[in-house]
Structures are given as structure tokens and as C-alpha cells.
Amino acid sequence: MSAASVLLVCQFGQPVRGLSPYCSPLLEALHAIQDLQVYPVDYRAAYPGFLHPAAKKDMSKSVGELHWGRPWSWRRVANMDADIIHIQHWSAPMACYLAPLAGMARRKGKRVVVTMHNPGAHEVLDWTRPCEQKLVNLSDTLVVHNARGAAILTSRFDVDAERIHTIPHGACVESSPATIEAGDHALLGLDPARRYVCVFGNLRGYKGVDVLLSAWSHVVEKLADVDLVIAGRLWTGHSGFGARIVAKMLGTDHDAERLHTALAQPGLAERVHMLEGFQSDVKIDALIRLSEFAVFPYVRFSSQSGAACRAAAQGCPVLVTDVGGLPDLAIDPSWIVTPGDDNALASIMIEKLSRPNGLQADREAQLQCIRANSWAEVASAHSALYDELI
């Protein structure tokens, strides 16, 4: 059997918005596999930047080949020499041009693999459903990150389960738990004399940050030495008229307003540090190192969290809700809570934070829990899938 040649279609580097850093480490791990030929296909623009509710329009552009509004760029990609085209799909509207791209690639004799990073859309957009269905129908194989995602994909698009492959979300797993470095607190403007719990990423409604704040109001009554750090972007739509329309359609403007209202609770503001806006890798890594644990209190979800994988891979214990693939990352059931239950979340956080020596031991356990998600393991699973297709 000849080695597969693959076009990997994604955003590379650290996209300021879009798919969380995923394809760059995947590409590096795939390049380490002997005889496998993988060629990156980056975006020039994945979607109209002025419509995105989180940031400025120029942040969606790169020097890549693929452009959402230029069909000739789709054709150029489809004509590239390879056996397989592997499309990363993370936002429902993108299917409106990824489906035609997949069709062109099939007509050129390529096999089509589509990774559905969000099998169930975060926000429902009925007009994109036919495009997503077409993209699914045109694929030879679909990839999801967990069994729940596979079940949702099967139900939502009436997909034969045999066409779905489950491959975990990759992580850059450290050899030992990360420890606080000199300058971490100063970089984030935090007091080194205090302890911290964190949540980070795009602060959208489905992530349950308002539930976390409600729970945190109970934590502050019991523990005086711990603060909460919230780091990330709110999808307010303040970047322009088009963005405001999209934020209104998606309901993310209301989510942002609800979060600010929760932050204004009496006695809470001084115990919560809000690092609003896009945060660099350097800052996020510092936040992970200095946190007792990270919380991901999602209220609805169908996939896996790149942010949670990132924290876990550095040995920062993750407290998660029982949605999507999040429980796969938990050390044990004591780190999993029912979504939307602020009282249960508060109780678990108080219990964990009352045993700091135990938390230190949990850091090594968290690393062991996620080792199967290493990029080398994930790349090997992709390589085996490619071999099946040619």
C-alpha cells in the first residue's frame, strides 16, 4: 500500500478567533510519522471578519490560500495534488463554502475527511442546516472527539455510525506538572500571597460562567484566601454594526450583559479578577501554572474543550460539568458536577480548596489522565484512518 498524501485544511498558528490552537500541533505530529505526506492549507479569511462579534475584522485574515468569499480559491484547493482532503469544521456557517469545496475535491478523485469539532452547534442557525447536511453527505469519513459527539452527529444528520471515527482532542502533555514561575503573578497583575481558581476561553453563554459566578458567591463566604480569575473575550458585538447584528442573532450580547450583571453582585467584585479580551499564550500558561485548578462549568456542549485539554495537559486539575467530552478529562467522578447546579459546584470547589495538599497530589493524577490525548497518539489515530481510505 502506498503512503497517503493529505491536504489538512485549517487555521494554523494561533488563530485570534476561530478554532482553538489545534491544527499546528496536529500537523507537527503528523509530520513525524514516516512516509505520511501532509500539506497544510491555511485560510486567508475563514469568514467575513466584520460580522464576528468578538474582535476587529482584520483578525480573521492570514496569508493562506482559502477565502470564504472567493470560489476560485476553493477550486485551487480542490485541485491540489493529494489523495485525501481533511477539512476541519468548527462553525456552522462555514459549511456554506466547505460543502462546495468538498464536492469539488470528490470530483477530482479525492477522499474527503471532515472533523466536526462541534457536532451540535453552540448557537442554532437554521439556515446553515442544509449546508452542514451537504458537507456531511459529501464526506467519506467524519471525525468527532468523543462518543457523545458521535451520537449527536448520528441523530442530527442521520449518519451511519460506521462512517464516524472518534479521535480525542489532542494536547501538549507535559512530562511533569507545571509549577509557578517567577513573574507569573506580576504578568497577570495578581497578588502572589493569594490562591486562585481560573476559567479561560471565549466567554460565551453555553460555557456557564454566570453559573460559576453564582457558585463563587458561596465560596467567598467560606474561604477568604482564594480569588477567581476569568480570562477571555466576550462576544459583545461592539466591533461594528455587522458584529452587533450577529451578536443579537446569536444572543451573545445578552450573554455578555448577564455576565457583567453577575460580576456586579455585592461583595463579589473584589474576589473576581476579569481579564477581558484576547489573552496571549504566555498569559494563559502563567494563569494555568498559578491556579489551584481550572473550572469549565459548561451548561451545554457536544464536543471537547481545547481550553480544558490545555489546562489538564499542564497538570492543572480540571473541574468540569457532565456534558460533551469534558468528563473524559476528569481525574475521577469527584471532579464532575451536574451542569447548571451552582450549589453543587460551590460545594465541590469549597471541598477541593479546603485540602491544598490534596490538590498538589492531584496535579500528577491529572497528567496521567490525559496522556492518551498526546498529539503523538492523536496523529497515529489519524494516520491509521488515512490508511483505511486509500
Structure characteristics:
6-stranded parallel beta sheet, alpha/beta, Rossmann fold, globular, 390 residues, 2 domains, 39% helix, 16% strand
- How much helix, percentage-wise, in residues? 25-40%
CATH topology of the largest domain: Rossmann fold
CATH homologous superfamily annotation of the largest domain: Glycogen Phosphorylase B
Task: Write the H/E string, N to C.
Answer: EHEEEHEHEHEHEHEHEHHEHEHEEHHH
Average pLDDT across residues? 88
Number of strands: 14
Tally the helices: what do you get? 14
CATH class of the largest domain: Alpha Beta
Basic shape:
globular
Task: Return Rg in Å.
Answer: 21 Å
Class derived from helix and strand content = alpha/beta
Domain count = 2
CATH architectural label of the largest domain: 3-Layer(aba) Sandwich
Largest sheet: 6 strands, parallel
Q: Low-confidence parts, pLDDT < 50 over ≥5 residues?
A: 57-61, 241-251
Spatial strand arrangement across the major sheet: 2-1-5-6-7-8
Distance between the first and last residues' Cα: 8 Å
